[in-house]
Amino acid sequence: xxxxxxxxxxxxxxxxxxxxxxxxxxxxxxxxxxxxxxxxxxxxxxxxxxxxxxxxxxxxxxxxxxxxxxxxxxxxxxxxxxxxxxxxxxxxxxxxxxxxxxxxxxxxxxxxx
Length: 113
Description:
Blueprint: H1 11-22, H2 27-34, H3 38-51, H4 72-83, H5 88-95, H6 99-108
Helix pairs in contact: 1-3, 2-3, 4-5, 5-6
């Protein structure tokens, strides 16, 4: 993953944070020394305790599930309408979706142009 240019803690920095905590330094001292909040120190300590070294790596911000995602049957209908050369407004009107939702579905299927 890409590291933000102003990121205070990289995975290596998180290892240093954990090493300082394991040496016995107080979390408040570690947070001041590393330029992060105390809450951030506790967050990374908890992840380290739960997952070990792997818990210090970056992870995706993508949700595990999308419960409000458009049903597959509706997506199939949107794709079929687009293949019949319908425009976004017409597709949205016929399926009862918003124009933006229809557009997102078509982008996902590569039919937006």
